[in-house]
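pinned: reference chain
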Amino acid sequence: MIHPVFQNLRSISVYFGTWILLAGIHFSILFLQFRIPLNIALADSFIYNAVLCVIGIAMWYAIRYSMPGKTTGFTFIFNHFTYLVLLLVFWIGTGYAALNLLFKDNLVYINFLGLSIPYRFVAGISLYAFIGLAYYLIIMYRDLQDKAKAETRLNELLKESELNMLKSQINPHFLFNSLNSISSLTITDPGKAQEMVVKLSEFLRYSVSSNINTFTTLEKEMQNIHRYLEIEKIRFGDKLVFEFTMEPGFSTRNVPVMILQPLYENAIKHGVYESTEPVKVITDCKTFTDYFEIRISNDFDPSAPARKGAGIGLKNIRERLKLMYRNDSLLKTFVLNNVFRVVLTIPNKPFENNPEQ
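pinned: its structure tokens
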């Protein structure tokens, strides 16, 4: 996050202009009210305000570190108390030492300088509070702007995402191949053909009725994945083997609807299609404190020619996860010893302003 003072010429002018104004008020009080000599009043106002001007710029980094909500209440208060003490000691100590060195022969002013320290402490506390409040308001304003931009971007991508999701929901090749298989089975095995028709209709009903703006339970999502794999099992027979391992309690976890379908389509497309040996698709889930992982692995034949694709499935998943959880690293893929693995991380809670909630 760029420093607000240096984000543009206007902010630079406002910040340093404010300190010039404060230095002018400081000088006027010393020169007109307390009758401090002109040169001493100028030096006093310049040194104290210049030092605090620099400290005010540095305060931005301390304020960002001590954001409310990121630390406990005690830590928040302790941090600011520590910052304030260090600021006052450095500010008043530096100014006093410099002015005492410059005007040590003017005993009247040196005496005034010592007596004015309590008032400078009060002024320092007030300025610290004002600067800190201004920085917090700037951070809050920027956060609101970022959220508004994210929501605007989400709305712009929503229709496109819905179209892309339809592509990931109903792969036309899968549908055509399934219908061809049903056609063949009506002659060779009418019972299996009927079973495949039922499973295909249930799969299509779930896919078409699903809305991109909803969540579903992992149990329902896995039930649809089972339908999909069982349909493909009828086509591929012993070439396709699938296993599921889930810890107790996982079935009630919430996941974005249809988030898993493209991953299994990839496993079939790049694993089973080109292989002459049985391919095992293994799914296991693991829970952590703030999230859980769904791991899908399939072996493949490295010597088989790679099947080309548009990459719509993985791209859609990454985009949806980024928009829903404000995290672009929730989907990872690995290849190790002829095994392709996908690790999908699902946080326990989506982003608070996400429209998909």
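why pinned: Residues 40 and 102 are 9 Å apart (CA to CA). The radius of gyration is 33 Å.
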